[in-house]
């Protein structure tokens, strides 16, 4: 709920896993832009995904 649990300046992260990244690579590689792959790489580092 906005104002109770979340504020405008809070940072939200998507829940991703090694399996979801592998699925993107296998089935949706051509649908994911270079900028989106860069974001996924950043999230991997933040979330300690190997």
Question: Mind explaining what this structure looks like?
Answer:
By secondary structure, this protein is mainly α. The chain has one domain (11-50). The chain is built from two helices and no strands. It has helices spanning 18-27, 34-46. The chain is elongated, with a radius of gyration of 14 Å. The model has no long low-confidence stretch (mean pLDDT 90). InterPro entries: Transl_B-barrel_sf (IPR009000).
Tally of helical runs: 2
Strand content: under 5%
Give the low-confidence spans.
none
**Structural class by sheet pairing and helices:** mainly alpha
Instruction: Report the radius of gyration as a whole number of Å.
Output: 14 Å
What labels describe this entry?
single chain; 50 residues; mainly alpha; 46% helix; 0% strand; elongated
